[in-house]
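2.7 Reproducibility. Because tokenized structures are sensitive to small changes in the input, we list the exact sequence used for Alanine--glyoxylate aminotransferase family protein, including any N-terminal residues retained from the expression construct. No trimming or masking was applied before prediction.
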Amino acid sequence: MQPPLSQPHIQPFFPPQRTLMGPGPSDVYPSVLAACAKPTLGHLDPLFVGMMDEVKQLLQYAFQTRNEMTLAVSAPGSAGMEACFVNLVESGEKVIVCRNGVFGERMRSNVERLGAVAVTVDDDWGKPVDVQKVSDAIKANPDAKFLAFVHAETSTGARSDAKALCALAKEHGLLTIVDTVTALGGIELRVDDWGIDAVYSGSQKCLSCVPGLSPISFSPAAVEKLKTRKSLVQSWFLDQTLVMGYWGNTSGAKRTYHHTAPVNALYALHEALRLLADEGLENAWARHAMLHTELRDGLAALGIEFVVEEKYRLPQLNAVHIPAGVDDAAVRSWLLNDYNLEIGAGLGALAGKAWRIGLMGYGARRENVAVLLGALGEVLK
Ligand SMILES: *Cc1c(COP(=O)(O)O)cnc(C)c1O
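Resulting structure tokens (single pass, no recycling of outputs):
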């Protein structure tokens, strides 16, 4: 037998105030952080349930959708991804999956774990999804039921044409599953107008909320697919037919316990979405675009070049080549330790070759651009 564990004496944790300019989490709005510290209510308290109805209404606005099935999964963006696949895709079904970075590959893995068939359409890292290649794949696979792609590839900073891809899918009767984790709140996204059937996002990117929640929305066609499944949804926790008993299909419906909602995190999401609605979606998109051009011009003056061609660049995720002869890890830890400033490393094919500079939500501010350009200029000297 081992000796009993000794009593630990641990100090409280005091994180420093960093400036988060990586691929997420982004800087959280002060009033969102304050919302987390409000008194916890019971997850079936009528006042809390009323707030959840407002969260749903605010999410419908952010996604630009009238979908009834719109809610926040009580887990990060990756769980929203799983919720879309596990609820809609059944074993043996064919899904066309576009891969132009890390997150498309994760979609493929989700499909395969369900015993479904993934037909991959590959594009180089830093390039958008090629609509023509997707069209060819759909024609070559008339039995495919879904098209899945990432709107804003955070691993590369490339924006794909979600509107054109969804139109193509509709033309051929495919349901669409779209990753908008980094897109939501940062660039134009219109779930209903574009015909997106299942969409998921994350709280910690352009919404500037605390991490750990994943907004999702299913169209009536996606709900129909879910209701007419031949098999049970493999995941109990993510089964939306069960979750809706708690989130409610219609406002005012009686709620039943499914799991204990992350009450305080949902206060935070309510506040973050409220701030977005207050600013106005179009204004938020324009702010991200404007600060991206300021950052771009400042980086150009430092001789730093972008990974992605100008017309496909995401304003909220700026992937840039690390200048020749510069020590990637040393620069990033210098920025972190001396300037309390976090930028992202390259992922996958771009590891060691690129930095990823986020201008997301509350982080998309002129003072952040100035801090980053000043610090990077110093460090590169
Ligand atoms: C961050 C991100 C995810 C995963 O979200 P987590 O909250 O980290 O689970 C998925 N897709 C994209 C495009 C992302 O940027």
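Residues 24, 76-78, 103, 150, 154, 179, 181-182, 202 surround pyridoxal-5'-phosphate (CB under 6 Å).
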